[in-house]
Design goal:
By secondary structure, this protein is of the alpha+beta class. It contains 4 helices and 10 strands. The longest helix has 28 residues. The protein is globular, with a radius of gyration of 16 Å. About 15% of the residues have low confidence.
Length: about 180
């Protein structure tokens, strides 16, 4: 399976949509959070680390071998504060999950409940476990996950087999 320019374009669109969604969620959160709350001092702007959207494209090009995405690509949108997530940590996250064309298939915000997990256990896909390592509380990250580290050849529910998926993750806390 080769990644064509249209698929790369689709991944770029998904990343841009998710970065925009994270911006609006963060902006909305700053409007509803009481003064003096536990908010960070960072602005609510969306700045993709490592060179903006071009950074995502560069990271994605490094993850493509033989015409397909083979590695997990994690790009920070907002860098959090404090300790970094390590394998074995229990964390709480919010996320939006889409196919590479931007079609959403899961969203914890819409469910009204965040996800708690132990990093490295088998409760979530391998690529999500890898992608959250190094995040700090309050951080937001876009994670592009190849099929082999997501839902594999068979897929799952609305996710087709061999699908690259994109997660926008906000780390709420590390326990």
């Amino acid at each position: 399976m080769k990644i064509h320019k249209y698929e790369a374009f689709g991944i770029g669109i998904a990343v841009a949509l998710m970065a925009t969604a994270l911006f609006f969620m963060r902006f909305n959160d700053t409007l509803t959070r009481p003064a003096g709350g536990n908010g960070s001092s960072q602005s609510a702007s969306v700045i993709l680390a490592e060179g903006g959207e071009a950074g995502v494209v560069n990271a994605l090009s490094e993850a493509v071998e033989g015409g397909r995405v083979t590695k997990v690509v994690a790009t920070d949108v907002v860098i959090g504060n404090g300790e970094e997530v390590e394998k074995g940590d229990q964390i709480q996250i919010h996320y939006i999950a889409t196919l590479q064309n931007g079609q959403e298939f899961d969203n914890t915000h819409k469910k009204g409940e965040s996800l708690s997990l132990t990093v490295g256990d088998k409760s979530v896909i391998e690529g999500l476990n890898e992608g959250v390592v190094g995040m700090k509380a309050g951080g937001q990250r876009i994670i592009i996950i190849p099929a082999e580290k997501a839902y594999g050849r068979e897929g799952y529910g609305p996710i087709p087999g061999k699908a690259t998926v994109v997660y926008a993750v906000e780390l709420i806390s590390i326990k």
